[in-house]
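Title: Comparing notes on inverse folding

I've been comparing how different people in this forum approach sequence design from structure. To keep things fair, I'm posting one structure and asking everyone to reply with a full sequence. Here's the target:
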């Protein structure tokens, strides 16, 4: 039946180890390129019972290993919005995305708003440029097809979000390189042109970044929402958010924003 297919889509797409059926709202987390659901799904333990945490599982990894990777950004976004629509209509939700996940979270928010009149009450983004920034152009020109595995590995190492034990086994290493490559390819198909005079979102947006990470162009975020935008820098590199002290800061700050939203 249609219903079981929808809930199956949901099961496939979402990791939620800390189920909170009576939560007031949901925080939907979008992982980074090459990333799985676990680190952000574990945030569930740091939130009170009023917030349920979902972590989105992209195709081609974890329990979706046998599935082909996403064709492009548009199809990935459509898959996510379709699978989550019923849940998102039930109660208020916020988004958190890191790096690649920031761009996906923004694209999903945009589609929800344009096609379904739904919007996160808060968008938390991390380790990424504003989606309407020129700074994204160099990413689009990386010749992924021709980039050697070694160079992809170097890039992954510079980003530092990969536990070294993943790189010990040849199979794991191969899979990580392929996943990262495919995620980057999807990101290159992301195109966002802000329509003249039209502000796409109305939610508040908060940007987080690591102080040792490369600087991101965040200046264009305020053009994308009629809500407030704010930025916080936390100690650390691109994966500052995996440090326990930063996790606590982030989850406390997000909790405060949820409380201020007066749900």
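Reply #1:
Here's my take.
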């Amino acid at each position: 039946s249609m219903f079981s297919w929808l809930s199956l889509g949901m099961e496939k797409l979402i990791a939620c180890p800390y189920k909170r059926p009576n939560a007031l709202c949901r925080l939907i987390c979008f992982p980074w390129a090459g990333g799985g659901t676990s680190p952000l799904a574990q945030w569930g333990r740091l939130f009170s019972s009023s917030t349920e945490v979902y972590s989105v599982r992209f195709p081609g990894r974890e329990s979706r290993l046998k599935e082909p990777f996403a064709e492009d950004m548009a199809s990935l976004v459509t898959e996510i919005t379709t699978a989550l629509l019923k849940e998102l209509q039930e109660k208020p939700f916020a988004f958190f995305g890191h790096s690649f996940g920031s761009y996906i979270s923004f694209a999903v928010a945009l589609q929800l708003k344009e096609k379904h009149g739904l919007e996160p009450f808060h968008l938390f983004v991390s380790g990424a440029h504003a989606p309407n920034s020129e700074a994204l152009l160099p990413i689009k020109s990386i010749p992924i097809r021709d980039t050697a595995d070694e160079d992809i590995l170097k890039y992954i190492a510079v980003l530092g979000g990969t536990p070294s034990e993943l790189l010990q086994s040849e199979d794991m290493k191969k899979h990580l390189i392929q996943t990262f490559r495919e995620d980057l390819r999807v990101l290159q198909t992301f195109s966002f042109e802000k329509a003249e005079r039209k502000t796409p979102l109305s939610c508040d947006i908060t940007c987080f970044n690591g102080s040792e990470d490369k600087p991101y162009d965040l200046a264009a975020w305020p053009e994308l929402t009629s809500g407030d935008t704010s930025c916080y820098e936390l100690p650390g590199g691109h994966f500052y958010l995996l440090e326990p002290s930063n996790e606590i800061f982030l989850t406390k700050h997000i909790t405060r924003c949820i409380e201020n939203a007066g749900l």
